[in-house]
Design a protein that fits this description.
Six copies of one chain form a homohexamer.
Chain A (H helix, E strand, L loop, with lengths): L2 H16 L1 H4 L15 H15 L14 H27 L9 H16 L1 H18 L6 H7 L1 H17 L5 H13 L2 E2 L4 E2 L4 E3 L5 E2 L4 E2 L4 E3 L3 E3 L20 E2 L4 E2 L4 E3 L3 E2 L4 E2 L4 E2 L8 E2 L4
Helix pairs in contact in A: 3-4, 3-9, 4-5, 6-8, 8-9
């Protein structure tokens, strides 16, 4: 191929790809000073959160009782700073495009929400402590809490979920979804940040689990790999598109167990203490303390 | 353990592991100047492609209308260079081993294919734009196109697939498979680069989806997590090994929906507008506009 | 928000999170000189192992017959050093906390085990060679052994499993689990390091596969994506918690095939040559050479 | 040493070092949003400037005539962004501490100055082109302009100086000094950014050269290593400290040559065409076209 | 060149370079567990020290009064840990080679010395504060203490010197020299760690300054670039080699000034308040308050 | 400043800087496949050379007698590969620009030269061993050969010089100069790669030393900091520019000592055993065993 041909194709392709018509809806224009949320910074935020919640298990710090306050202080400060920036980026991502950088109001809002999240960390830690306990009690192969904390995927997924859920509750757009997709990619567990989940929650193995946005899950619930808590169908609007925002995923009351690859669909209620067997398809309410297994 | 014992075991192990007999079939001998395909460079290639296709969403660039042409120009040039090297590595990986470095013919071929791929990027972008639309319309929880582009795993998987598919079509060995396995690892979605997939394609959640090499998928098709479009069985050759290259995966016509964990096997045709329910096992043709649900 | 409020919330949160009561069971106190196992170093250990077992396919080395002994020598030495440190970290993680650093006895034990693992690498390579062969024969889409080695997830999972299993057998705590979870995250294949698996083993696609700790798998066995080899239920102790250490997962004899998303539960025996169809739930023994498919 | 002693010393030292009295004048308190100038970012700024001024010699870009405009466009945009942030940091570093973050006025000023600097780059390049020519003509060992640009320390020092000088002229505090000290550390050539230097300037070898803040240097001047253009003495104020801001360094008119290790001190004028020999000490005016050598 | 020739030359060269005879005196054999001092870690140690001594000026921390104690606590702990390892490496480097790893005695000694150094940091900071003051007062071009701290090479050189000197005083081998050579490379100022230097010491510009091992320098002393405080000649032993350890460098009493490129040689005493002019060669005692200038 | 003004200035500046007229002589156009020499790769080359010549002192390897051959083998192979690429880059940098990539002849030449350099490493090591000995014997402050090797700047400068000199002798353009400038920047010692230097050569402290391209230095020569071995004047051609390639720097015979800041200029001969005092200016031959000191 001659250099001239090469230059021609290169230039033409650049022109086509820079053409505004080709970019419609696919191009995120940055306004000065309003950067996009950063996956890399959000990873650091999650790493910091893990270091704060489970000191000594994550990060390179060799924390001990002499120095734990120093470490938590530094980590909290950095978490607050990074989180403020990312929340700001999330707010700017979705606020109406007027061609001007976001005003100070957005920055203040971001800082306030970030501080609120920081203030909720002690509560998040104490809920996660119940999740560690549940994972340990639920797996005969587990040797210690330390093993659960340092290598069980469910704990990684739940740290992300519990933080993402708080951010969602505080009204932050986009960021919670990115955080939950990070855990999805790492663990194969896909929990929507809007889902509500009680304490002592655990998932064994985890790959393929899906928990939809309007799920409500009680305490002491246990899921196995491949379980879907999904929507059965969604009402369509006049254009044939799904209507957004309708409750469409299951409610699981306390003490429910769902075995591997079961699919539970629609706004149904699985009563307290129910057990759903593997590879089952459930689309109707189950009364408390009932069991449903595959007939085979 | 004495130092002498240590040295003995170490030396013996190095000897055993360097023994040509032990290495048969497991050792990739490099000829000078013919490096192996690099996972790290292929990741950069995918990152560049994402930056070019969805400007402003990926990479660290703060692109805007003033500067988009500069950014796309630089990225296209770098993409072309890196891709040429990797295609060359793929060609060399599979060409007959004669002990000599590949001749210039291979290098010219690599550069030409790389340029052809670059020239197809505008078309790839416009197909991916339909996939973004399909993902948005198909998920009541989605808030904006931006959210789809920046965090939905299906889009990550499809960018890789659509590029890998073009490279496969252009006759590049190995590289397309590595690119599709990168997406598989990141998203749990395993699409063989040889599969053919129409526009407005989407996958919800995605973990566990498998789309085999000889699948043909129409337009406006939607899959859910855990769906397998696989082979039922393969004819064996006289040695009892599967015969390579036979059409053995399903054909899905336009507007088909397959719900979670359904398994569709063999060279069957699922007609236009069919719906396949969750956890179903389908091994026979379905007429257009029919539905198949689990009986439970 | 005023600076005073900010400082107040920050300080209060640091205090709460540093409170020993809040940390009970969640805080890994480091003793001087006894660092935690490091995910990053374990990744380097796996990368080194891949480089040693499949020379030329992994790492940045451009090894050839002239220089292979140099490369294997350097890699073996580094592997031994890093592994000794990590085994030591694993031993210290679980040994009783007396407030003193581990004595030299632990260090000697770590070095000996590390050397034993190194000495077993030739055998590990030769078993993995059979796995490569099985993957190639089992997939009509595979073009070459090289393609299998460089991009099939099953090989990545099995390198980790076969090393983790040896470490488990040698009595190393924690480290084997971290190594297997690394493969789980990368491939979606979750193989417990305590499971026993014969030669010529392969898994197609792999996402969602679970192989429990007490599984025993023969030679020439093939699994598809989403297969669970799990426990049916576990006996509880007087406190209602599962009793640890009981054989509770299936035995698969030689030449068994299990298709996608099948679930095999409990300490049952699947006889030699059995075939289990997709999406099946199996909880009872199967006689040799029997087949079980979904009735649909 | 007991753990108690250790903890005691550690805690006491932290207390002493955190004591405000001990920190007086040594502690740079950050106000939120007003980061310190960053050496690392300033290095990237210099690297970008080198890439823009001498395309193809620096950075990893493989620029050519087809793509140079793309590269310069991307680099200019990034330079402007990074420089705006650093100028802002410089302005904030020196503005009066009122406990509040800098207002938007500072940000606007930073952006304007940054853009002015960008607008002067063509002129800076054309002056540096004369410096390259002077270095080439002045060194019999030089083989090509390319060699001068890619490895002569004088060019590195002059790129930094000519940019730092523009920033100084535009009223930016601190940043110019950091940029000139970066060159000082790399090359041993210490040029104060406030000095004024004409075109076709060169320094051979360079280590130990010092050019003071109020120097005025004409065109076609050449210095050798170890030359000091310094102050002889400075008037003291009533406290015995030097009075700041007085012209105290030499004026070198056009076509002057100063050989190695010569020391020229005070506000004297070295006339056009003068030559100063090695290891000389000059503290008085020299008439044009005179020479001064060591008497030995 | 044929592959055979290549392999021959390569192998022969490796053999020659591995030959113990060729390695005599040039080969540092590592004993297990006794690593060499690491330049990279020592750089981190210096960066940490700068961060602790001048909070907010170095490192990426955005420390403020709210959080300074947390930052200093974390930095002190890390400094202590890294320094203990490096001191241990220094002790092992020089202790007699018996083929066995160093015993615990060395480790204890390293930890004790490291803690002693940490305990002296408040005093080191307060001496450096006087050096900052001296640099500010001595340079009419300096705008603020902040400018001195963040970019004057003398401060970088003195942080290294004052730490290296303490380590030297505490009996640590090798490490102090490496630290002082790091400053030498960065600033061109070469201060031997064994030299003794009072408070309010400064050096202007600095490149080329040499301060020998047995120098004794009083308070309020100022040097300019290129000044050598060196040895005149050294007594030789019976083999014609210099005898080590003899006092051979100058004593400078309080308030001495030495101008650029002056050379002061031998164990002479420069009395309080003396001034030595530029490019002078001084080899004899100077009485207090005398001046010596070049006669030209 | 309005966005329009901004865009205008940005665009205009990009245009000006991309204008071929503005780029004349300053723009290095890359031909495909002919990259520029890389400072970063050359640094790795020097690091590798240091690791090979002084095993155990540089790099992160923990080499010992058991494993030294493996390490040297791997390092030699990598050195050869990187060096071949860089020599190729140097050859392409200077060969006539015909618009086509360099042919295979250049590549073969680069590989041959690289191998020749590798084959000379044993001789380079043995000369450097004499330099280490000279540095140790010449400095009463030196404690061990190990200290000399690991931190004396003269050794760093001489490793670079002795390699650069061999490359220069083998006809490689540009690369030797870049290597010597790397040492110049790190140590302040500027040795032209074309200079000829005997064994047992040392430089004390080193900052500011300049050794010109046509210098010839015998054995057992010692220089101190700030010494210039330079050209006195150069004959000009008809255009008034220096004529390149004329012998113009001093010859120092065996056993010469030159003290700090002395300047020796022109093609003169300093006879065997001469001593030149500090701050001296020498421009005429000195007979063997004469001394010249400053008259003061």
């Amino acid at each position: 191929m001659s250099n001239t041909d090469f230059a021609h194709i290169l230039t033409r392709t650049v022109d086509e790809l820079s053409d505004p018509a080709s970019l419609k809806g696919l191009f995120h224009q940055h306004r000065e000073g309003n950067p996009l949320p950063s996956g890399k910074v959000l990873e650091e935020i999650i790493d910091l959160s893990r270091s704060i919640i489970f000191p000594g298990y994550f990060g390179k710090s060799s924390v001990n009782t002499r120095t734990i306050r120093y470490h938590i202080g530094v980590n909290i400060e950095r978490l607050h700073k990074l989180l403020t920036d990312q929340i700001m980026a999330g707010l700017c991502f979705t606020c109406p495009k007027t061609g001007e950088p976001c005003t100070g109001a957005c920055a203040n809002k971001a800082e306030t929400i970030s501080l609120q999240l920081v203030g909720r960390l002690p509560q998040i830690r104490s809920t996660l402590a119940t999740d560690v306990e549940a994972a340990y009690n639920g797996d005969p192969a587990a040797q210690s809490y330390g093993e659960i904390i340092s290598c069980y995927p469910v704990i990684k997924a739940l740290v992300n979920y519990r933080i993402a859920h708080e951010l969602h509750t505080l009204g932050v757009p986009l960021i919670p979804r990115i955080i939950s997709e990070m855990a999805h990619s790492e663990t194969g567990i896909d929990i929507h940040p809007a889902a509500q989940i009680g304490h002592h929650f655990t998932i064994d193995h985890g790959t393929g689990v899906v928990i939809g946005a309007t799920c409500i899950i009680g305490n002491n619930v246990k899921l196995y790999q491949g379980v879907t808590l999904g929507a059965k169908s969604f009402p369509l609007d006049e254009n044939g598109n799904p209507i957004k925002g309708i409750a469409r995923h299951p409610i699981l009351e306390d003490d429910v167990i769902v075995y591997s690859n079961a699919t539970v669909l629609g706004r149904i209620t699985i009563g307290r203490g129910c057990i759903i067997g593997a590879n089952i398809w459930v689309t109707e309410d189950m009364k408390p303390n009932t069991k449903k297994y595959k007939k085979e």
